[in-house]
Specification:
The structure is a single chain. By secondary structure, the chain is an alpha+beta fold. It has 14 helices and 13 strands. Helix 11 runs parallel beside helix 14. The radius of gyration is 20 Å and the shape is globular.
């Protein structure tokens, strides 16, 4: 069975980014390593998300006094973007497991982090603002997942999984992956003990079949998105340019489609794209590398047409409005510096051929919906 990536400590991202486990993505559906500073142009969306404060650390001992005194704008910006992406991606990856083919996996559907899950510059803020320490703590729960149905809560501190004690400290995430890998092959649910309100609570968490791609936010204002076959990265610039969740969902769906269709592999640029993603996940990326083409190839029109078609079906299955698809593609073609070497419009040129495929696919989907037929390409 193909391997699936496990979330790693951001501090160790470059060294550990290729550590993998089988058979499921455990905690980080969206990588724990999106190291994105707050920007004055933070975009709004149809659903408002607020950065969590210490008093929101559900069920555990926290300090609710004057959270403003310990807020950190860099960490708040990071959390806002992570939570937005997590919220938008949830229906796309759960509702489209059948379309993700061999890249669908069972997963728990929550992120777990400790104070070391953030870059060194934010460790103190994570400790003060979020109440994180050496232990892994539940941070985000995927809507519709087994973790949500089981009653897992934000702020729960992981104690054991299948009676195995969860590691703590700087290497807690990769060590947990290593520990759990041998026992997960034939399970449909996991027995998890957490600490909530200083008391141990045991829950049985059913695994959730979903598209097994980590989705991150990249630290650059360039408007772009990348898919290396196993990961997806949307840049901060792209999130700022696309103001609504519906618009962002379209891009996430397209990048999922590129991965499912193995376009990076066909173009022989999986390693190149992986290096670009690794760089943009850093708190301070190499800006020279970030602003260069890095040898990334322009996506052939046929591949973009294939991704457009599959993405439209994924969006419809996830309950997103597909009518706005063409408008978003046109809006991206009008981004500042659209002719720059490493931007979305240059790597995914907008053509009449793509527009024709999109219109035909939307018509096909509408017909299937009216006839109550399965939404499968």
């Amino acid at each position: 069975m193909p391997l699936a990536s496990f979330a790693i400590s951001c501090r160790q991202h470059l060294r550990l980014s290729r550590y993998v486990v089988s058979p499921l993505l455990l905690f980080a559906l969206l990588g724990a390593c999106s190291q994105i500073p707050l920007n004055s142009n933070t975009s709004t969306s149809r659903s408002t998300t607020t950065a969590p404060s210490a008093s929101q650390n559900t069920g555990n001992k926290t300090t609710s006094t004057s959270s403003a005194a310990v807020r950190d704008p860099l960490l708040d910006g990071l959390l806002l973007r992570q939570e937005r992406i997590y919220r938008i991606a949830a229906p796309l990856i759960i509702k489209n497991a059948v379309l993700c083919r061999t890249q669908a996996r069972p997963l728990l559907g929550f992120t777990a982090k400790n104070q070391y899950s953030y870059p060194p510059e934010l460790t103190a803020a994570a400790r003060q603002s979020l109440g994180l320490d050496e232990r892994l703590q539940v941070m985000q729960i995927l809507d519709g997942s087994g973790a949500m149905r089981a009653g897992l809560k934000r702020g729960d501190i992981l104690q054991t999984i299948q009676d195995l004690t969860i590691p703590t400290g700087p290497q807690a995430e990769p060590e947990t992956a290593r520990m759990l890998s041998p026992i997960l092959k034939n399970l449909s649910e996991l027995n998890i003990t957490v600490i909530r309100q200083n008391q141990p609570i045991t829950v049985n968490v059913p695994l959730t079949l979903a598209c097994a791609f980590a989705i991150d936010v990249g630290n650059t204002q360039l408007v772009n998105a990348y898919a290396d076959g196993r990961r997806i990265l949307l840049t901060r610039g792209l999130l700022d340019w696309l103001s609504t969740d519906e618009d962002v969902a379209i891009i996430i769906a397209r990048e999922i489609a590129h991965n499912v269709l193995q376009h990076a592999k066909q173009l022989q640029q999986m390693a190149t794209l992986s290096m670009v993603i690794d760089n943009l996940l850093l708190f301070k990326p190499d800006q020279i590398a970030a602003n260069s083409s890095n040898g990334i190839k322009i996506t052939p029109e046929k591949m973009d047409q294939e991704a457009d078609r599959l993405a439209l079906f994924m969006l419809a299955r996830a309950g997103y409005d597909i009518a706005n698809f063409t408008h978003v593609m046109q809006k991206l073609a009008q981004t500042p510096n659209a002719s720059q070497a490493l931007t979305y419009p240059t790597l995914h040129p907008w053509t009449e051929g793509r527009q024709s495929v999109i219109q035909a696919t939307i018509k096909e989907i509408r017909q299937k919906q009216s006839a109550k037929k399965a939404l499968v390409p």
